[in-house]
Amino acid sequence: MSDFNIGAKIKKLRLAKKMTLQAVARETGFSPALISQIENNNVSPPIATLSKIAKFFDVKIGMFFAEDEEECRFEVVRSHERKVIPRVISRAGTSQGYSYESLSFRKQSKKMEPFLLTVAEKALEENTYSHDGEEFLFVMKGTADLLLDDRKITLYEGDCVYFDSALKHRLLSKDGEEVKVLAVVTR
């Protein structure tokens, strides 16, 4: 996470609005402690949490992954250049059992955000998330369970799903084995 310095970017947005941690927490629905941990780069928030924070500050989620470079019309990210966002933590402070990599972090003003999700363990809790936008998931490796509102949909290697992100959702490893998923999220 420190490669992107997401926490410092959130703190800069908060200070620019002259807001306290408590005010941001109240407006976003997250605890002041979680906002503080994110700002200090102690934990990595799930994509849904970043999406809500981005919406609150009226910025695109890609801003958190962007490098401070000039705007380009295209971008090539080599496999060795990808940066993993580890230690994804829930509101309750528990591990979510996955990590993700931004597959586009130089191009700004994007309409979609591509990520490579790796679900490496069976999650201890099955809490779900929702946020604005839409999502497309393509299972590249393994078998996953997608919690989507009141449904549990099993997705096998090669399967894909497109859904409204306002639906409560969460991707889990079906059997505790590693799952790799291409995820594309819009705001």
UniProtKB/TrEMBL annotation:
> Which GO MF terms does the UniProt record name?
DNA binding; DNA-binding transcription factor activity
Residues crossing the lipid bilayer are: none
* Domain HTH cro/C1-type per the UniProt entry, residue ranges: 10-64
**UniProt keyword annotations, A-Z:** DNA-binding
Q: Give the signal sequence positions.
A: none
SUPFAM superfamilies associated with the record: lambda repressor-like DNA-binding domains (SSF47413), RmlC-like cupins (SSF51182)
Q: PANTHER family under this entry?
A: BLL2473 PROTEIN, HTH-TYPE TRANSCRIPTIONAL REGULATOR
Q: What is this protein called?
A: XRE family transcriptional regulator
